[in-house]
Write a structure and sequence with these properties.
Layout lengths: L1 H35 L6 H15 L1 H6 L8 H5 L2 H35 L13 H26 L8 H5 L2
Helix pairs in contact: 1-2, 1-6, 2-6, 5-6
């Protein structure tokens, strides 16, 4: 199971990277269109969709590498059972919030598909298409928080350390 989960987080990170390349391509296309005088309609919208896709697909990998911002002032002052209890509480709340985010992201994409919602721009993109990557990213983020919570409860979680994360 560990290998599968790590593969899921890695695949999500790779998709985020591909979306970042998509942003680069759309920006370069927009610049080229202005320079060479051709129309690249919708490229700014697609750059925005790719930016959102990159951000959401990177959430889980960022969490698993300890790169999310954590306020550790209180946790640093706690020791033993109080520290573990605070970690479990924080991870439980974060897991619950990530679950709500995933649920509503999936609901939004599904609703956009059902009502055939399209973008207001000239490209008229069906909105479920970019929204599905937000939904996938939040699902993987939720899975990553579940993973962290289970690891913490089993005593196998390596506590994220911001300084260690920057040296990897």
């Amino acid at each position: 199971m560990r290998k599968w989960l790590d593969g899921l987080y890695t695949a999500s990170a790779w998709l985020a990277g591909i979306f970042m390349i998509g942003v680069l391509v759309m920006v370069a296309l927009t610049i080229a269109s202005r320079f060479f005088g051709f129309a690249a309609t919708g490229s700014d919208a697609y750059a925005g969709y790719a930016t959102a896709g990159a951000g959401f697909m990177a959430l889980a990998s960022t969490l698993k590498h300890g790169e999310h911002i954590r306020v550790t002032l209180l946790l640093g002052a706690l020791k033993g059972g109080a520290h573990k209890g605070a970690e479990v509480l924080a991870l439980s709340i974060a897991t619950l919030l990530a679950g709500f985010l995933a649920w509503y992201s999936v609901h939004l994409a599904w609703q956009s598909w059902e009502i055939n919602d399209i973008s207001v721009g000239i490209d008229a993109t069906p909105m479920w298409m970019p929204q599905v990557f937000m939904a996938l990213g939040t699902i993987v983020f939720f899975i990553a928080f579940c993973d962290e919570l289970v690891l913490e409860l089993r005593g196998k979680r390596k506590a994220p350390n911001q300084e260690d994360a920057h040296h990897e």
